[in-house]
Amino acid sequence: MNFKISSLKKAYVGISPQIWVLAVSMFINRIGSMVLLFMSVYLTKEKQFSIPDAGIIMSMFGFGSLFGAFIGGKLVDKIGFYPILIWSLLLSGIMLLVLGQMQSFALIALFTFLVSATGDAFRPANTSSISTYATAETYTQSIALNRLAMNLGFMLGPLAGGILASINYHFLFWADGLTCILSALFIFIILPKPPKKVVVKKEVETTLNKKLSSPYHDKMYLYFLLFTCLYAICFFQMMTILPLYFEKIYHMKERNIGLLMGLNGLGVAVIEMFLIYYIKNRWSQFKFIALGVFLLVISFLILIPFQSVFILVISIIVITFSEMFAMPFMSTYAINKAPKVSMGQYMGLYSISWSVALIVSPLLSTNVIDWKGFNALWLILAGLCFISFLGFRWMENKLNTGSIN
């Protein structure tokens, strides 16, 4: 018992109060994360759209995310992260409330885009805020705490979402929208405004330094974003296509889908903080990332020869460990790579890599399903993920030999 209490204290030691405020805000927001998770089922079951048409609407989350992350990154560098955190959540909440009232294909697609565009401006702002309030020693733990809050919310969100969807799908939009607005109010009331950003002196801004501070001239970072995007294309299947798979192939009800998806949030919430604390200095970042990516390959392949609820549970568990090994170290690498003068651009581009994945992921999956079925999709995803795994292993080798700057 003493060991457990001691381990708990060590895992959280040194994290600043501001990081805790951000984590609570993230928890409030993610409790309502229901719309994306149930959107594919909502569109095909409730709205009677075809699977390819549902894929087009789902891709609007990605297009909106791409736009929001790009604009959000630019705005963070210009006006700071604080107003972006608040306005992003507030506007996204309002757009969700409107989206739930839309009936036509075109309007649902439009407001899906607007929900994501406003909401994903939050991502570079959130990452920049963590880099501001965390020290170099506690950054990975701060990321893990942020993800802990996110996944505690994601554990409760699917459970509540499954219950609400079984009653009326419109309740999902109200719950998601109102929690976004509550999260914005929480930040506005509790989190103090940060000190004004220090202006970089003119004489430092030589052409060379501008190149060095731009993510577009950072070759290693661009490779990293490519392989991250491939991983994200595959990972996003958990939120966009797996619920549809459970409903179409296993004929699961919304409540059971919510229970199964909540298992991911529960696993990350219970394990990740302690896992990160104990393993963060034992391997290089890329070894952990590569391990996480390889686990995702396995999670898809085991769905092909076996069909049972037990295998679905195993697959979700493997995906959960994939996420825990890969994502915190991806975020840590991205933030460590970013110079202070262009933090927003680096984080914006990192967010954009995930946004591109969110565009490609549902378009790829829904068309493959319509063409050859789910098993063909699992094979293609395993192949893409394996390319990502090889890419991260290659990057580590190049870094170790100093071949890439």
Protein model, in words:
It is built from 18 helices and no strands. It starts with a helix and ends with a helix. The chain has 405 residues and is mainly α. About 3% of the residues have low confidence. The chain is 81% helix and 0% strand. Helix 5 runs antiparallel to helix 9. The chain has one domain: MFS general substrate transporter like domains (Growth Hormone, Chain: A).
Question: Brief overview, please?
Answer:
With 405 residues, the chain is an all-alpha fold.
Mean pLDDT: 83
Low-confidence stretches: 198-208
β-strand percent reads under 5%
> Which geometry do the CA atoms define?
globular
Which CATH architecture would you pick? Up-down Bundle
CATH class categorisation:
Mainly Alpha
Quickly give the structural class.
Answer: mainly alpha
Superfamily at the CATH H level?
A: MFS general substrate transporter like domains
List keywords for this structure.
single chain, 405 residues, mainly alpha, Growth Hormone, Chain: A, 18 helices, globular
List strands and helices in order, with pairings.
Blueprint: H1 2-12, H2 17-31, H3 35-46, H4 51-79, H5 81-99, H6 105-119, H7 122-133, H8 139-167, H9 170-190, H10 207-212, H11 219-235, H12 237-240, H13 242-249, H14 254-279, H15 285-301, H16 309-337, H17 343-372, H18 374-401
